[in-house]
Each structure stands twice: as structure tokens, then as C-alpha cells.
Design a protein that fits this description.
Layout (H helix, E strand, L loop, with lengths): L1 E3 L27 H18 L8 H8 L6 E6 L7 E7 L2 E10 L2 E4 L3 H4 L8 H13 L12 E3 L4 E2 L7 H12 L10 H8 L6
Parallel strand pairs: 2-7
Antiparallel strand pairs: 1-6, 2-3, 3-4, 4-5
């Protein structure tokens, strides 16, 4: 995954071929109640992740990531009124930002128009992040020369707002081992806790 090199504006990273960034087309075609419920459920999962920072300015995100290893990322509220969320990530060229758009009940990375239809869509924000984290971990070394002002975008390690609880780390470990949580010999309350967050990141 590649994007244009960063500057200070929110969401200026643009997937792929370096074309001019364009705004998000008008919104979602789902009913407003269904849309709000779906977004709220996804945000609930995101809050449980431990790496959702809520309201944060571009400069604050840059400061948090400045000394972090390449691939460190966080998710925050977008300062752009047409978007809910932004991924801030440390790249080889420094911290940059990439918006997450929500359309027709799906989340995907914001992109230039010619690339948008090729990007995967997800039911939740955490699912989107998990996909790109796993993709980054399985990446092959790219030897080709990248276009001018283009950098690699790897999502490798989340920047937590605080040290994750042992319970949260345990449920992630369980989810990495099995997807048959309800078959485990555990109390129902514990099964419910594990299935509240069924992700590996």
C-alpha cells in the first residue's frame, strides 16, 4: 500500500498513484437510524481497542508519533467535517494522516477516485484496521522504484492511549487461537466479554 508523502493537513495521504486528492462524495444511502446504529456499534468496538484517541489535532497526533517506530498508528476523530475518523501513522517520511470514509454501510480508506472502487470495504473500523495490519505483517519487500513523493504505508503497531488491561490482552490471545468461543468451557459472561472484541489487533 502506498500513499503520497505527508504534509500537515488532515487526511492528505492519498492511496496509490499520486493523483490530486478529492473530497468525499455525498453520504450514505441507508436510513439514518440504521446508519447511526451501525456507526455507533463500530465506534463501540473501536473504543474497546485501546488505540482510539478521540478528539486530537493533526499536530497532537504528529507529536505522539514523532519518535515512534515506522508503522506505529492511532485512530482519532477527523477534523474534516465530511469524515468521522482519521488514521495517523508514522511512515518513513514522518507522521501522516489518512481518512476513513463511510458509504453505503461500509468503511474504507479514503482515496483518489480512480482507485476507490478497488479498495476493500469493511463492516467495521476495527475490521478495516485489522486487515491492513495483517497485510503489513505479511508484506513482501518491494524493490521497485516508487513514484516521486510516494512512501510506503504500513500499519504495524497501534499506539495505545494507556497500557492495555490483562483481560483485554487475554481475549485477543483467545481470539487468535479460535473462533469457536461459545464452545469453550467458560462462563457465559466471560464468553460475552471475549466476543465483544473479536480482533487480533
Amino acid at each position: 500500500m502506498t500513499l503520497r508523502s505527508p504534509d500537515t493537513a488532515d487526511g492528505t495521504g492519498t492511496i496509490d498513484n499520486g493523483a490530486e486528492h478529492r473530497g468525499n462524495p455525498p453520504g450514505d444511502t441507508r436510513g439514518s437510524t440504521d446508519k447511526d446504529e451501525h456507526i455507533n456499534m463500530s465506534l463501540g468496538e473501536l473504543r474497546r481497542s485501546g488505540w482510539y484517541w478521540g478528539h486530537m489535532t493533526v499536530n497532537e497526533a504528529k507529536e505522539k508519533l514523532q519518535d515512534a517506530p515506522e508503522g506505529t498508528f492511532l485512530v482519532r476523530d477527523s477534523s474534516h467535517t465530511d469524515y468521522l475518523l482519521t488514521i495517523s501513522v508514522k511512515t518513513s517520511a514522518g507522521p501522516t494522516n489518512l481518512r476513513i470514509e463511510y458509504r453505503e454501510g461500509k468503511f474504507r480508506l479514503d482515496s483518489v477516485v480512480c482507485v476507490r472502487s478497488r479498495l476493500k470495504q469493511f463492516d467495521s473500523v476495527v475490521h478495516l484496521i485489522e486487515y491492513y495490519v495483517l497485510l503489513s505483517k505479511n508484506k513482501k519487500i518491494e524493490t521497485e522504484t516508487l513514484p516521486n513523493r510516494t512512501v510506503h504505508l504500513w500499519l504495524v503497531k497501534p499506539l495505545y492511549t494507556s497500557t492495555p488491561s490483562l483481560q483485554h490482552l487475554c481475549r485477543m490471545a483467545v481470539n487468535k487461537c479460535t473462533d469457536k468461543i461459545h464452545e469453550l468451557p467458560l462462563p457465559m459472561r466471560l464468553k460475552e466479554y471475549i466476543t465483544e472484541y473479536r480482533y487480533h489487533v
